[in-house]
């Protein structure tokens, strides 16, 4: 049973003071919010609508499911961004354009807020963990109502209550070291049949370009018992596909922490062991994981993938650059040769595996020779998909103080890389044309409602004729047409 199940408690809002113990305290605030919303509904003759808008990675998407879980529990009604009274932006700050996107959205909201007195704007996520950005928001966007960070997602109900009752801006960004209670929260899962599960939080790697360790804190692994219990509960709820989430899942385990202390130790229980145990759970058909750091990818993990058909044939293995010199400046702790060795081993043990990666161009000091080594690596590996990024200065990271590559050179390299990447990926993905594959149906196709969209085990997307009843089921599909990153297919029966 989840501690946050509000139905296990009476009406806590009648208590004279909020309880001091979390998560009871948050249940109290959810009850209080229920009361506030009931009054509003009566007065306005309608529901109060919310929308959580997510920027960035899978971690943020998963946090948003928790924010939505709290809002639903409190009695808000889900809606799209355009019609919402309460809009929460869960922000990303990994690159500068993510910041700019948020400012763009906020700029448009000021007028809307004037015309809708019920409108509240909340900001949370990675951007809010940076002091300079908080100061900027306080100065430029005074109409923002609540602000919180990555360590206090669990406090949403409390902050909203305070905003409604005190009628002033509420800013509460906790710092590292505070217990987060994320896993005790209700969730509103986007899909009923698949779910992300956090196995760890934070990152210890301090790649020299990256802001994540500063905004998500040090690495903390959840205990295997907690993770496996969560997954068993999800299976009971109808989930068959699990995505294990962490900034660097390969360094999972050994010491299990909450935000401030070690709660258990087991030096032998590592990520491959966890993966094996997850596969043993009846009802689970597919297990994915994200993200892997090449420096920690062990032979043991490759063997577990090979020996466990439930582990999806997909590895996202960010390389970032193809030159050992640049990798060293990035503090990545592997060489070009070592990376290629891992790829060889993976392909040898799991021949049908699909490999995807992240690559950055224009890291400080990158020369034309370095760049050509990246291009060469892309051609050698033969990725199924490459996510390409232009290096973006993040203040406070070591690379921000290094000598930058001129913008026009970076842009030219980026365009050249994109060209190689798309030619390369088309060739790779095309290799499945004509074959029959098991597909988990996920959605109605957004462009054509007589079609559905699903994913193969190796994460390749397939569109084919189908209907809403098929969502959540596994079907065999023949891949008839190859479209670059995805396929068009047709149902192939048993
Ligand atoms: N500039 C550009 N891309 C970045 N990434 C991380 N930090 C930066 C940055 N400062 C990319 C990396 C990472 C992905 C999630 O985002 O490639 O793998
Ligand atoms: Fe950032 Fe490197 Fe950690 Fe990934 S491993 S989150 S790139 S510091």
Describe this entry's structure for a reader.
- Helix 5 links the parallel strand 5 and strand 6.
- The chain has 494 residues and is an alpha/beta fold.
- Helix content is 35%, strand content 22%.
- Helix 1 crosses helix 2 and helix 12 runs parallel beside helix 13.
- The mean pLDDT is 93.
- It starts with 23 loop residues before the first helix and ends with a strand.
- The strands form six sheets. A six-stranded parallel beta sheet has the order 2-1-3-4-5-6, with helices on both faces. Strands 17-18-19-21-20 form a five-stranded mixed barrel. The protein has a three-stranded parallel beta sheet with strand order 7-10-13, sandwiched between helices.
- The site of iron/sulfur cluster has 10 residues, from helix 6.
């Amino acid at each position: 049973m989840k501690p946050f199940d509000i139905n296990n408690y009476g009406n806590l809002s009648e208590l004279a003071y909020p309880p001091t113990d979390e998560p009871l305290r948050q249940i109290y605030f959810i009850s209080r919010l229920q009361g506030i919303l009931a009054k509003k509904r009566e007065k306005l003759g309608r529901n109060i609508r919310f929308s959580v808008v997510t920027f960035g990675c899978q971690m943020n998407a998963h946090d948003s499911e928790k924010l939505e879980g709290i809002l639903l529990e409190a009695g808000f009604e889900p809606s799209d961004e355009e019609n919402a009274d309460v809009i929460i932006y869960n922000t990303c700050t990994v690159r500068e354009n993510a910041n700019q996107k948020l400012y763009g959205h906020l700029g448009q909201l000021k007028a809307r807020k004037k015309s809708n007195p019920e409108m509240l704007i909340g900001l949370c996520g990675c951007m809010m963990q940076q002091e300079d950005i908080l100061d900027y928001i306080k100065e430029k966007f005074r109409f923002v109502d609540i602000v919180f960070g990555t360590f206090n997602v669990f406090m949403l109900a409390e902050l909203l209550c305070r905003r409604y009752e005190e009628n002033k801006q509420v800013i509460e960004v906790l710092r590292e070291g505070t217990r987060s209670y994320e896993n005790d929260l209700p969730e509103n899962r986007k899909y009923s049949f698949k779910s992300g599960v956090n196995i760890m939080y934070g990152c210890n790697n301090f790649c020299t370009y990256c802001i994540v360790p500063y905004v998500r804190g040090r690495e903390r692994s959840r205990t295997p018992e907690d993770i496996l219990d969560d997954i068993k509960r999800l299976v009971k709820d109808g989930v068959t596909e699990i995505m294990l989430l962490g900034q660097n899942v390969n360094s999972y385990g050994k010491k299990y922490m909450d935000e401030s202390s070690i709660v258990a130790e087991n030096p032998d229980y590592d990520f491959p062991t966890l993966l094996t145990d997850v596969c043993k759970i009846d009802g689970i058909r597919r297990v994915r994981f994200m993200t892997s750091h090449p420096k920690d990818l062990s032979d043991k993990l490759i063997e577990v993938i090979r020996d466990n058909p439930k582990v999806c044939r997909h590895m996202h293995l960010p390389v970032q650059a193809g030159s050992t010199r640049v990798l060293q400046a990035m503090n990545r702790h592997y060489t070009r040769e070592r990376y290629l060795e891992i790829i060889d081993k993976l392909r040898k043990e799991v021949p049908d595996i699909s490999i995807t990666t992240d690559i950055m161009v224009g890291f400080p000091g990158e020369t034309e020779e370095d760049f050509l080594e990246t291009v060469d690596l892309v051609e050698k590996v033969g990725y199924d998909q490459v996510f390409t990024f232009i290096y973006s200065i993040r203040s406070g990271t070591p690379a921000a103080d290094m000598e930058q590559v001129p913008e026009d050179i970076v842009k030219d390299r980026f365009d050249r890389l994109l060209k190689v990447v798309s030619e390369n990926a088309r060739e790779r993905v095309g290799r499945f044309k004509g074959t029959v594959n098991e597909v988990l149906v996920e959605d109605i196709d957004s462009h054509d409602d007589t079609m559905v969209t699903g994913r193969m085990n190796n994460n390749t997307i397939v569109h084919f004729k189908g209907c809403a009843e098929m969502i959540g089921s596994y079907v065999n599909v023949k891949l008839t047409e190859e479209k670059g990153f995805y396929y068009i297919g047709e149902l192939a029966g048993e």
